Amino acid sequence: MTSLSDHLARVYGSTDPDTLQRAYQDWARSYNADLAAVGYAYPQLLPALITRHVPDTASRILDAGAGTGWIGGLLQTLGYHNLSGIDLSADMLAVARTTGAYRELRRMNLAERVDFDDASFAACYSVGTFTPGHAPPHGLRELARVVRPGGCLVVTLTEPAWADYGAVLEKLCEENRLALVERTPPFPVFPYSPEERHLLARLEVHRVLA
């Protein structure tokens, strides 16, 4: 039986899209149960920020790195019914499809141009995607591009990702593309895991300006 730490080592240690896809192919079926068992914090916090900053449940929202659709399913329960999801892993998207939470689910690579027009969405959230071994920092620019001015970009950043990925968000703020609206204090991503409770993260909400 593969442990959570083993799965995390594989996904965080991936060096190319093919390796990452294989890691998630092996994890897709047990992903939600494995993370729920260690108190995975993102599904508890992300929907709260969406309801606070995107109160209109009819808003078109992009889930960038949708994975198994866990967050989308929670937002559907809260009344959000205009969700689109993208992910690199076809196996994770197959699980997301079973939630019935998304109007569309498409396979995309955030290392490349995102196949949506400028200003297509009222908001975008990305959970656990901008982190080592996953989407590159410049993918944040793509997500900012597809959110309309006045809309929100909500991202999770683990402590190892703060320097590289946070630098891109700060640069977008300097360019007057984004404005920081809210930033949580650091919190443990897996608080019930003795091996992984040291991994800290934060959630950031940015308003898209242009």
Explain what the structure shows.
By secondary structure, the chain is α/β, with parallel strands linked by helices. 36% of the residues lie in helices and 24% in strands. It contains eight helices and eight strands, in the order ααααβαβαββαβαβββ. It has helices spanning 4-12, 17-27, 31-36, 42-53, 70-77, 90-97, 139-146, 162-174; strands spanning 61-64, 83-87, 102-107, 121-126, 147-158, 178-183, 187-188, 200-208. Strands 1, 2, 3, 4, 5, 6, 7 and 8 form an eight-stranded mixed sheet that branches. Helix 1 (4-12) packs antiparallel against helix 2 (17-27) and helix 4 (42-53) crosses helix 5 (70-77). The protein is globular. The mean pLDDT is 91.
Structural topology:
Elements: H1 4-12, H2 17-27, H3 31-36, H4 42-53, E1 61-64, H5 70-77, E2 83-87, H6 90-97, E3 102-107, E4 121-126, H7 139-146, E5 147-158, H8 162-174, E6 178-183, E7 187-188, E8 200-208
Query: How many β-strands, per DSSP?
Result: 8
Q: Helix amount, in percent?
A: 25-40%
Radius of gyration: 16 Å
Q: Are there runs of 5+ residues with pLDDT below 50, and where?
A: none
Distance between the termini: 48 Å
Gross morphology? globular
Q: By helix and strand content, what is the structural category?
A: alpha/beta
Summarize model confidence as the mean pLDDT: 91
Amount of beta strand: 15-25%
- What are the secondary-structure elements, in order, as H or E? HHHHEHEHEEHEHEEE
Tally of alpha and pi helices: 8
Give the biggest sheet: 8 strands, mixed
